[in-house]
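For this section, I looked closely at the sequence of one protein beside the tokens encoding its backbone, which the following lines show:
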Amino acid sequence: MGIFPVICTVIFQYCNQIYYYKKCGINIPHFWKNIGMQARGLVVPVLLGIGMKRLFPVNSAWMMLAQIAVYTFVYVVSMWLVGMNDFEKSLITGIAGKLLPGKEKAGRKE
């Protein structure tokens, strides 16, 4: 009984994607290609998360915070190196350049 809603959701989403591709002109194959490229950046963090959970069980809040910090660092580095394209990286560096103090913009003199 619980599988029927899942099947209906998958069929509905598939039909929606066909509609978006044929009637709205949205490039759905390109969209899924980009999703696949981003998913490559998740391989290392997922394996790390599974390994940390098995090797270092959480006994305290400090252990949990340490695991969160390690996982977050690995996730950010992995997504930066593998999961993001140049446009996405430029968005982040642009925002970081505005938020971090002491950074002057190139070509700007005051």
Notes: The two ends are 68 Å apart (CA to CA). Residues 45 and 51 are 10 Å apart (CA to CA). The chain has a mean pLDDT of 88. Residues 61-83 form the longest helix (23 residues).
